[in-house]
Amino acid sequence: MEDQRRMSARRKIIAGNWKMFKDARETSIFCESLRAVYKPDPRFEMVVCPPFTSISAAVYALAGTDIAVGGQNCGWETEGAFTGEVSPRMLLTSGCKYVILGHSERRQYFSESDQLIGKKVQLALSLGLLPIVCLGEKIDEREAGKTEEVVGRQFDGAFHSVDRTGFDKCVIAYEPVWAIGTGKTATPEMAEEVHRFIRGRSASRFGAESASEIRILYGGSMKPTNSGELLAEADIDGGLIGGASLDVGSFVEIAASAPRR
Ligand code: 13P
């Protein structure tokens, strides 16, 4: 009973990480068609995370709806001589509510360390931008039985300087690297096991109440054909969706597959 109350208290998040897809014009078209079919639903909050140059188009097209907009990354300072960077304050004042931090593609192609991600999480929080913190192991790490060690280390790095109040504003996304863009999805059981581990880690660091409230999304080849069973798991509180979020139809279908509890 208590467990159920806690579960239903966690409104799911269905977030689209568009990566380096959709320019401003394509973003307007997408958001206008999303707006046309979208109906607010207490089961989930929808979020779109376009590239920086498309953020204002998304914010404009979604104005007046409760669909949130997020950035895919941000700098670790509020302003300064950092050519090419975008600060979390700029995201916030452009209309973003969320920012994805620590995505495996940032770790892999832009050499982002746990320490740097921790700095970004802290700064975003201090400004009122809500981080979606990504954690996930690579295939060799999973095969070597190191999933919990890797995810645990990433968790500790990302939340190193965060207090409980800050943690309560965060969202976590478990994204096994081997499942991203590969069509290989973690089975619901595999994902649930790691989600449970992350919730346990949250409890030991921030206490049982924070752990029961933090939303932990799954990401990695989520699509309408597998989202229902993933979202039905007790510790999976939504999805961070890449490829399937680029199409309004499949994005909305994934959201609609969220269980009614
Ligand atoms: P795909 O859904 O394309 O596998 O991407 C997942 C992801 O990286 C979301 O952040």
Description:
The structure is a single chain. This protein is an alpha/beta fold and 261 residues long. The chain has one domain: TIM Barrel (Alpha-Beta Barrel), CATH 3.20.20.70. It has an eight-stranded parallel beta sheet with strand order 7-6-5-4-3-2-1-8. Helix 2 runs parallel beside helix 3, helix 6 crosses helix 8 and helix 12 runs parallel beside helix 13. The protein is globular and about 45 Å long. The structure holds 1,3-dihydroxyacetonephosphate (13P). The site of 1,3-dihydroxyacetonephosphate (13P) has 14 residues, from strand 8. 1,3-dihydroxyacetonephosphate binds next to strand 8.
Q: CATH superfamily name?
A: Aldolase class I
CATH topology, which one? TIM Barrel
Q: Approximately what portion of the residues adopt beta-strand conformation?
A: 5-15%
> What are the secondary-structure elements, in order, as H or E?
HEHEHEHEHHEHHHEHHEHEH
Mean pLDDT value = 95
How is the topology of this model organized?
Layout: H1 2-9, E1 12-17, H2 24-37, E2 44-49, H3 55-62, E3 68-71, H4 88-93, E4 98-101, H5 104-109, H6 114-127, E5 130-135, H7 139-143, H8 147-158, H9 164-167, E6 171-174, H10 188-206, H11 208-213, E7 215-218, H12 224-231, E8 238-241, H13 248-256
Helix pairs in contact: 2-3, 6-8, 8-10, 12-13
The structure holds 1,3-dihydroxyacetonephosphate.
The site of 1,3-dihydroxyacetonephosphate has 14 residues, from β8.
